[in-house]
What we know:
The chain has 158 residues and is of the alpha/beta class.
Amino acid sequence: MIAKFRSTYGSGIEPLTYAGQNYMVVDRSMIPEILQILRNEEQFDYCVDITAVHYPKREKQFDVLWVLYSYSRNERIRVKTQILDGESIPSSVPIWAAANWLEREVFDMFGIKFDGHPDMKRILLPEGWKGYPLRKDYGILQQDNEWVQINLGIESGQ
């Protein structure tokens, strides 16, 4: 499968294995097409998870990852791309409906927006919450004191 992708897309795809887990690093511009091919031609019919990792000291601060599963192949693959802080990425909701809430969680926790998402809003935290708790530069004891005061009428317990 990777050989087929490499012959078609060249150096924009890098296959890797870590701890027995297969994944590929894909150039951001190719993500929608690669995900579509993985679903339609390679039978990765289940989007298990979408998540991100924040590397604040790196130029492209975020890795965005899709964990996919093929029932017919009984196989998992991870697809990873890197993006800049403030850069968005195309939504994979048109490919897997299950991506809807997964992308909203990534937006809520990391601040990464997915272009074309049908309802890009917070899913875990209230709409007025400031900051993105899974970014490494979000203080571990930090919370939105203003939101707590306005909405709960109490002082923060931190």
